[in-house]
Each structure stands twice: as structure tokens, then as C-alpha cells.
Amino acid sequence: MKIAVCVSGGGTNLQAIIDKINSGEIHNTEIAVVISNNKNAFALERAAKAGIEGVCISPKDFADRESFNKAFLEKLDSYNVDLVVLAGFLVVIPPEMIRNYRNRIINIHPSLIPSFCGTGYYGLKVHEGVLSRGVKVTGATCHFVDEGTDTGPIILQKAVEVKEDDTPEVLQRRVMEQAEWEIMPRAIDLIARGCVTVESGKVRIEE
Ligand code: GRF
What we know:
Helix content is 35%, strand content 24%. The protein is of the alpha/beta class.
């Protein structure tokens, strides 16, 4: 299975995918390209170190969103991937891309959807919301991307304890280490092995 990984920042989720392909935990998968909207994303350095082609394409380089969407989709299509993985990608996915890659785009969100998700909930803002609400358990969700924000069919989730003296940064790191870096690679492996189907908006996993 050929995948494209879309990134905007540090790339720790990308690194987890690279490492688990190399360790054999993710079967039958090759990263064809890493695409970022941010030329300074450390994720691009991680890709280069791993010998993976990195591409930078940003809305800032285009006169309007429509021309970016067209260029982004053309670039992605040129790699003929089976799956698109959004690993901290802070760009709105073009509706045409969601149609063309129905149930072939997955995203990692750092909460237990449907809590603390949707517009405005990204990065540290998610964990700030968790702490201000005082929930005792949070976690991460890997889901298929549809036309909404964090609304697609849920593939995997993993719970993480919220501790009394957590700061947003400490909680973010725990959610990454204990949940994100586990469930995103596992979702990719399950899809690569043909274990995942979507029926009326619900995901079935059969190993
Ligand atoms: C993570 O917090 C992830 O939950 C969110 O964006 C961040 C990406 O971090 N989608 P990294 O670039 O993978 O380190």
C-alpha cells in the first residue's frame, strides 16, 4: 500500500509511522511522499533523513484558495497513493479531494471524538479545553476524513489519564506518546492488511 503523509509541524506522528514500517509493525506499506504546507516543518527533515521525498506546497504561494486546491490535488494525484494520512496537517482539505479519496484519507485528532473537536479545536487548544472542563480521561482518535471537521467514521481510539497537575503541554505529550503514536500506525497497518471496512458511517475491523 502506497501512502502520502501530510504534515505541518514537528512530525512526531510521521516519525512513529516511519519507525513502525521499519520495525515491521506496519505491514505492506510504503510512504511515497511527505507533503507539507510549511517549508520549515521539522517533519520534512524527518522525511529527508528517512530517504522519503518531501514536497512543500502552501496556500501562501497561490493567488487564491481555488488555485491552491487544484495544485495540491494535482500534486497528490501524481503519486497514485492508496491512502492519505493527515498527521498534524493544518490545511483545510479541498472538498474535491474528499470526494476523490472517499474513505481513503485518515486523520489523527488528540481527543476522544466527539469531545473537544471541531472548529477551533487543534493542537494545544484541545488540551486546554480538556483541562478547563476537568475531565478525568482524554485520548486520541484516528478517523476517516469526510466533509466535516473531525466528523468522519472513527477507526480507532485510545484513552489516556488526565492527571491533577497536568499542564496543556504535559498532557499533549502524554496523549501523543500513549495514544497518537500507537493508534495512527495501527490504523494504517489494519487498512494495509484489508481489515477495515466502512458500513453506513461506521467502521468495522476484522483481523
Ligand atoms: C498532534 O498533536 C496531532 O494530534 C495533531 O497535530 C499534532 C501533530 O504533531 N493532529 P506532529 O507534527 O505529528 O508532531
